[in-house]
Model the fold of this input.
Amino acid sequence: MAAAPGRAHHLAGELGARDPQAVERITLALVDLPLSLVRRHLRDGGRYGGGLPAHAEELAEDCAAALLETAR
Done:
């Protein structure tokens, strides 16, 4: 489950992110990216196979890791 935006902002501070860009990057990685991936597949209404593909979790993890790495 994706983190709530307020919690992501708090976590960003705990991770040492002080500037708005770093906080936004962490929120994007923890909230927006996973949500958009799930939403896109749910909205297709099953037209293109329906449901999340088996590799969706790995894709979200890889993208989040890349975003978080650049936030340091």
User: Anything to note?
Assistant: The two ends are 23 Å apart (CA to CA). Helices lie at 5-14, 20-43, 56-70.
